[in-house]
Design a protein that fits this description.
alpha/beta, binds S-adenosylmethionine, 7 strands, 9 helices
Amino acid sequence: MLSPQASQIRRMFSSIAPRYDLLNHLLSLNVDRSWRRQAASLLADPLEDRRGLCLDLCCGTGDLLVEMARLGCARIVGSDFSHPMLTLGREKLAKRNLQRRVQLLEADALRLPFPADTFDGLAVAFGLRNLESWGDGLGEMWRVLKPEGRIVVLEFSRPTLPLFDRLFQFYFLWILPRIGKGISGHDTAYRYLRDSVQEFPDQARLCQLMKETGFAEVSFRNLSGGIAALHWGVKEGRPTE
Ligand SMILES: C[S@@+](CC[C@H](N)C(=O)[O-])C[C@H]1O[C@@H](n2cnc3c(N)ncnc32)[C@H](O)[C@@H]1O
């Protein structure tokens, strides 16, 4: 059962689904494609392993899944709780003949229907921020990863240069919500994006949160001057009894 807040987030993503890809590429001037490619490349080892199994959590319309599938031969699962997002993802995969290697599943990221120690690699792109509890979300990711399994988190972050940060804030506060509303017809979704990015932990705090969850070898790399960042880590420990 989803909480009222999660149900509202699901309704919001479902209503913007038809315009989601267009807006992503437009608002980021297409840079989001390169960010996802870099996220997938951090999972190259498990993706290149024929026996590997990888998860794209909060997969949306499947852009990251396509990048992951391009890189290797592992089996891949994409999960999301928005049916319209998954429907678009299914069409995208079919167009690229990837439907056999990539399975899509409708599921809440905080209650994944997988046993512990299932995946060799896990990526989440612009998904963690939307979960009701980032800590619980990371905990669930930790649970479903195998020991030695790798997590990759792609999220908006904080630009490192003060002047660039101010320009970016101006764009994010004033321009992005207006373009978002104009194209998606949705009043709140792109204001929500702005607010959720402001609340989300910066690079150092996210590293800390990942370490507190139990991930080891945690590190990050800024993308486009820190507009976004890639964080990664490894699940240490033994298989769950
Ligand atoms: C900003 S989109 C990112 C989609 C995709 N990963 C990408 O890179 O474009 C966030 C996605 O997370 C999904 N989502 C948010 N909260 C979720 C939850 N609790 N469980 C499953 N999916 C969730 C939404 O339905 C939406 O598709």
